[in-house]
Amino acid sequence: MKLSFEKSVKGRRGVRVAQSDVPTSTHLRKEFLRDKDAQLPELSELDVVRHFTELSRRNFGVDTNFYPLGSCTMKYNPKVCERIAAYPGFAHLHPLLPQLRGGGMLTQGALQVLHDMDILLREICGMAAFTMQPMAGAHGELTGIMMMAAYHHDKGNKKSVILAPDSAHGTNPASAAIAGYTVKTVPSDAEGDISLRALKEMLNDEVAGIMLTCPNTLGLFNPHVREICDLIHSVDGLAYYDGANLNAIVGKVRPGDLGFDIVHLNLHKTFATPHGGGGPGAGPVGVVKKLVDYLPVSTVVKREDGTFALDYNKPKSIGYIAPFYGNFGIILRAYVYILMAGREGLERVAENAVLNANYIKEKLKPWYDIEHGQLCKHECVFSATRQAKNGVHALDIAKGLIDAGYHPPTMYFPLIVKEALMIEPTECESKETLDAFIAAMIAIAEKARTNPEELKAAPKTTPIGRLDETKAAREMNIAKLS
Amino acid sequence: MMIDPKARYMKSHEWAKHQSGNIFTVGLTAYAIEQLGDIVYMELPEAGKKIDREGSFGVIESVKSASDMYAPLGGTVREANTEVRDNPDMLKKDAYETGWLIKIEASSPAEFDGLMDAAAYQKYLETEA
Amino acid sequence: MPFIANTDEQRAAMLAEIGLTTEGLFADVPAALRCGGLNLPEGISEQEVRDKLAGIAAKNYTHLTGFLGGGFYDHFIPSAVYATLSRSEFYTAYTPYQPETSQGTLQAIYEFQSLICRLTEMEASNASMYDGGTALYEAIMMALRITQRNKIIIDDSVNPIYRVMIHSYTRNLKIDLTETNNHEGLANRDAILKAMDKNTAAVILQNPNFFGCIDDFTDIAEAAHAKGVLLIVSCYPISLGVLKTPGAMGADIVTGEGQSLGLPMSFGGPYLGFMATLKKHVRNLPGRIVGETTDANGKRGFVLTLQTREQHIRRDKATSNICSNEALCALAATVYLTLLGKEGLKETAQLCADKASYAYQRLTAIPGVTPRFRDNWVFNEMVLDLPCDAADVVGKLIEKGFAAGFPLSRYYRGMDNSILIAVTEKRTKQQIGMLAEELEAIL
After folding, report:
1. What CATH number belongs to B8-128?
2. With contacts defined as CB-CB under 8 Å, which chain A residues touch C350?
3. Are the beta carbons of A132 and A110 closer than 8 angstroms?
4. Which of A131, A343, C144, C436 would bridge C362 by S-S if both were Cys, CB 3.0 to 4.6 A apart?
């Protein structure tokens, strides 16, 4: 398919700019102007709409295909959330308005959403307070680690190490490192949980905290999680909960009750906001009481008269991590989702997510190897080792699934599982969809035995075949400059 | 050639060979290169850089992995093989002669004797696989 | 709940097939760790939630005539932007890890990267950052990696909202952050040159700067490069429809807030950070990058490339911890720029400048109102000095139906009477005239 630039026709227009009702500026002196116009495409409105519509048809999305991408929680995104986010009362609100004298009263609705969401998330996570500002999960991690640093600094603790298990998302070590910490990796034990023995050996006064995902990236709930938090607390460390997998236990278990001190949530996972092909997300961070003072500036408070205000007076705060109040449009969508789900709905989310994952796990066990085949939570991690002996790798299975009309599972993650295929069906999917997917996975397992070449040539049904990634990395053609 | 009998080895799959005086050539083993797949990028040190034994002297990247490369001997880098850096496919053809990566002037040449010999590396590969 | 498909009967059948009970699904969670239910309200229907949220939205006053900017602007958004963005193949997709099922997103990002390069006259762009502020922070981290130095010079004509963010992000790191005070509204050349030393990694400037003033940093770029210092420029993309580009000035890294490119103001987000650089620095860029390649049949396609920079491979040695970016916002910007095209962007930028110029004349004609930086040229935003406290005046103008501007006392000492006023193409001559009349009446 052609690039927009390649469709450009000189002189064609996609918009008519409003007619000017004022004289031409005297301020744009020639020495400040660009030499040549920005080389943007010249297309009609129909050209543009057709171009992007055609592009959209070259994508799989939750609305078009089952999308069991492990750890990414690709659940259905309710349409009403999109509609409400587009209400002019929200979409047209300038973020500086509440910072004007008297302007706070003009944004009471938006402040109420932020405040109510804080209250809801406190209850869901068992935390004392939340900041809505982090703009994605990884941004929440960084915010959390910065608060950890502020806490230790305040207490005069000299600590330089953050622990994370070898099954952790890559963002955990990356976030800790850019916040200035040394990251030490704790190995997993035979059960797939973080090794308690190794953890105890690594524990000392230098440890500022630990970052854990629970259930972890193998989809396993660690029954010793409370003990781990206690161990970390014994050296005045803080326990960080990576909320990427909260979907598995929402309404059933609260990170705060497990002993965690800091929690980030990925609203685009548990709370059904769309992922947009890579964002925007939102990563609110909750903390226990002893860390509330370190939350970023500003926070929303409710006054005695029931009105809402922004509180900037936070002397111990880590400061400003976002320009304003976070990805408000995303927070709003998640707020709508939580209101609709309610107390019971959220519990059903966890139950159905876990049921669907275990159903797939049990049904596929005879066909694919699984190192940790015990009861799982929201996802299960198979290993294509059996198929690999026949030359069919996790990648080939993934591509075979595309031809069967499914978005593939997460491949080659977590790193501790060879030939990993990480499947997360989510609670939204029906038994019919799961059964059809299971049948497709079984057919692929059969094909891996009988006709591996066909899988190695997959996919055949997509606009392009497997792409040469080596060529992409070597040639580095990352922009069409002219 | 999978293993060069003249070279000595590290568990992290770097080799070293004595060139002359205190100068040693250092590279990656054919096994490691095969494991990496297509190499897309390499970072090698400038001449004159001091490196500790087992310290990282560069990075080698395939599409999906990036690995540090560790120095079998400590010392000063005398030369880096820019030809290989710019044409990483050369490594696939010959890991031990034209595919050397750096020349290092060892501060303690005796460190060479502490490395695995070809037979020991062969055995190590068998147990690792 | 309507977002769960299975019926009780189906659930029972599934549980029976795998030999479990509903309770058994959580058998691995010790009883002491369970919360025993949440204290939340019962769920509600779509009809109820729409009514409730319409009520909440109505408490927000969006009918004020807006002259607020500060880096975040009320620009016109053509309908085709939202229409294409609403294609759920785009918005219900994940990060394009599987290129065969994601060519739509991948090609759109490649086009976004190309558009950003063309707009800024730089050579390479990433797939987006969270916002203009975090993009600027990432640019600093990138400059530290490239130069292996630890001092950053930032002029206070750079958006103060970004400067306070940068202070927060760098306070635990061993970074010497030196702030220079603007010289009559422009980057303070003397102070910057004086501060530049052999430890300096980068100088950070903004154009048009926070006061709306237009500058040309070519001289600073030359001086910086002579000392091995990088120039980072934060810019306002609409202005690049007409203004000299950071690339032409010699910038090494360019960042900016892309909200003005087709995104609603949405009370502060989601927005769009963009980041461009020179090809030689690409391996130090944070975030995702899409590259062109071919399949086995030689057909063109796009993939995420140079991923070894990123956290999922390099973990604690990654160039950044960023994972989710603002892909859908980048798509909005891509559609917006494609739709406006070469002439449309230029005309929009010109129109902003024209209306601002008109507002400048009208407002400075009011007795007691003077331009703060008389000798400078502005794009679409300006600082005016009032004869009294600006925050008071803005408060009074809210009652008259205007969000008249941003009082600068919040961020700048000695500017209690100064107001920052932005004018976009959406403001009419009549609205500007009414603002002038109301302001004059209050003063």
Report:
1. 2.40.50.100
2. 24-25, 28
3. no
4. C436
Q: Do A469 and B41 touch (CB under 8 A)?
A: no
**Structure confidence at residue A26 as a pLDDT band (50, 70, 90):** confident
Phi, psi of A399, deg, nearest 5: -70, -35
Q: Where in chain C is the domain with CATH 3.90.1150.10?
A: 65-75+343-442
Nearest to B80 by CA among B107, B44, B33: B44
- Closest CA relative to residue A6, chosen from A49, A51, A55, A46: A51
What residue type is assigned to position A423 of the chain? I
Write out pLDDT tens, residues A63-120. 999 999 999 999 999 999 999 999 999 999 999 999 998 889 999 999 999 999 999 9
Structure tokens at C298: 């030689």
The burial class, CB within 10 Å (0-12 / 13-18 / 19+), for A11 is exposed
Output the average pLDDT for chain B. 93
Q: How many residues does chain A have?
A: 482
Q: In the numeric block, which tokens belong to residue A246?
A: 């909260």
Interface confidence: ipTM more than 0.85? yes
Q: If DSSP states are collapsed to H, E and C, what string results for A377-443?
A: CCCEEEECHHHHCCCCCHHHHHHHHHHCCCCCCEECCCCCCCCEEEECCCCCCCHHHHHHHHHHHHH
Architecture of domain C65-75+343-442: Alpha-Beta Complex (3.90)
Is C307–B64 a contact, with Cβ atoms under 8 angstroms apart?
Answer: yes
What is the pTM (predicted TM-score) of this model?
A: 0.96
Pairwise CA distance, residues C137 & C204, whole Å: 10
Instruction: Take residue A261 and report the two structure tokens written for it.
Output: 């001190």
C72 contact A CB<8A: yes
Q: How far apart are CA C405 and CA C383, in angstroms?
A: 9
List the structure tokens of B95.
Answer: 């890991």
Which residues does B47 contact at the CB level (< 8 Å), separation at least 6? B77, B78, B79, B80
Q: Which fold has domain A83-340?
A: Aspartate Aminotransferase; domain 2 (3.40.640)
Match domain C79-335 to its CATH number in 3.40.720.10, 3.40.640.10, 3.90.280.10, 3.30.420.130: 3.40.640.10
- Tell me whether A20 touches chain C (CB under 8 Å): yes
Q: Which residue of B has its CA nearest to A476?
A: B40
Query: Are residues B65 and C283, on separate chains, in Cβ contact within 8 Å?
Result: no
- Residue A97 and residue C221: Cα distance in Å, rounded? 36
Say how far apart CA A270 and CA A256 lie, in whole Å. 17
- Exposed, middle or buried: residue C167 (CB in 10 Å: 0-12, 13-18, 19+)? middle
Give the list of residues 6+ apart from residue C313 with CB closer than 8 angstroms, or none. A170, B64, B65, B66, C307
User: What does chain C come to in residues?
Assistant: 443
What is the C-alpha to C-alpha distance for residues C314 and C86, in angstroms, rounded to an integer? 34
Beta strands in A244-298 (DSSP E): 262-265, 285-287
Task: Give the A:B interface size as CB pairs under 8 Å.
Answer: 13
Strand A238-243 relative to strand A285-287, pairing: unpaired
By CB atoms closer than 10 A (0-12, 13-18, 19+), residue C19 is exposed
Average pLDDT over residues A176-189: 95
Q: Check if the beta carbon of residue A89 is closer than 8 Å to that of residue C58.
A: yes
**Strand locations in C236-287 (E):** 253-257, 273-277
Minimal C-alpha gap between A446 and chain B (Å):
27
Report the gap between the CA of C193 and the closest CA in chain A (Å).
22
Preceding amide of A298 cis, omega within 30: yes
From the number of C-beta atoms within 10 Å of its C-beta (0-12, 13-18, 19+), residue C328 rates as buried
Peptide bond into A463 cis (omega under 30): no
CB of B86 within 8 A of CB of B80?
no
Q: How many CB atoms lie within 10 A of CB A370?
A: 18
